[in-house]
C-alpha cells in the first residue's frame, strides 16, 4: 500500500509565499514522476508542476516564474515553493506520483491541502 501525505497549505495574502511538501511511503519500488495538481471550486483539477526522476520539469503557464518544484529521490519527497501568490491560486493542492510497487505501476494521489490567497 502506498500513501502520499501533503503538508504546508494555509492562508496567505496576495504576493506572499507558501511551501507545500509531500512524502510518499509504502511498498514502493521506484518512483517515476511526482508532481502537484490543484482544483479550485467549480473547476476541473489541473496540472501545476511535475518532475521526473531524472529532473525534467513541467509547469503550467500560469505558475511559471512563480512556483518551483523540487524532489528528493532518496527520501521520496516532492515540494512546491509558491511565490508571488495570487487570489486565482486559491485551490486544493494535490500531490500525485506515478510509481512502481510489487503490484505493478500506478498513479497515486494525496488527500489534498487547501491553499487560500486572500487579503
Please, could you describe this protein's structure?
This protein has 119 residues and is mainly β. It is built from no helices and eleven strands. It has strands spanning 2-7, 10-12, 18-26, 28-39, 46-52, 57-59, 67-72, 77-82, 91-101, 104-109, 113-117. The strands form two sheets. Strands 2, 4, 5, 6, 9, 10 and 11 form a seven-stranded mixed sheet that branches. Strands 1-3-8-7 form a four-stranded antiparallel sheet, with no helix packed on it. The chain is elongated and about 45 Å long. It starts with a strand and ends with a strand. The mean pLDDT is 97.
List keywords for this structure.
single chain; about 120 residues; seven-stranded mixed sheet; four-stranded antiparallel sheet; about 60% strand
Outline the secondary-structure elements:
Elements: E1 2-7, E2 10-12, E3 18-26, E4 28-39, E5 46-52, E6 57-59, E7 67-72, E8 77-82, E9 91-101, E10 104-109, E11 113-117
Amino acid at each position: 500500500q502506498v500513501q502520499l501525505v501533503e503538508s504546508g497549505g494555509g492562508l496567505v495574502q496576495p504576493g506572499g509565499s507558501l511551501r507545500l511538501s509531500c512524502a510518499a511511503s509504502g511498498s514502493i519500488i521506484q518512483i517515476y514522476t511526482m508532481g502537484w495538481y490543484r482544483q479550485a471550486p467549480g473547476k476541473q483539477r489541473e496540472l501545476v508542476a511535475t518532475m521526473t526522476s531524472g529532473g525534467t520539469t513541467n509547469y503550467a503557464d500560469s505558475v511559471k516564474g512563480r512556483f518551483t518544484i523540487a524532489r528528493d529521490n532518496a527520501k521520496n519527497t516532492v515540494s512546491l515553493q509558491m511565490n508571488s501568490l495570487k487570489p486565482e491560486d486559491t485551490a486544493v493542492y494535490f500531490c500525485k506520483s506515478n510509481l512502481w510497487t510489487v503490484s505493478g505501476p500506478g498513479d497515486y494521489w494525496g488527500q489534498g491541502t487547501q491553499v487560500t490567497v486572500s487579503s
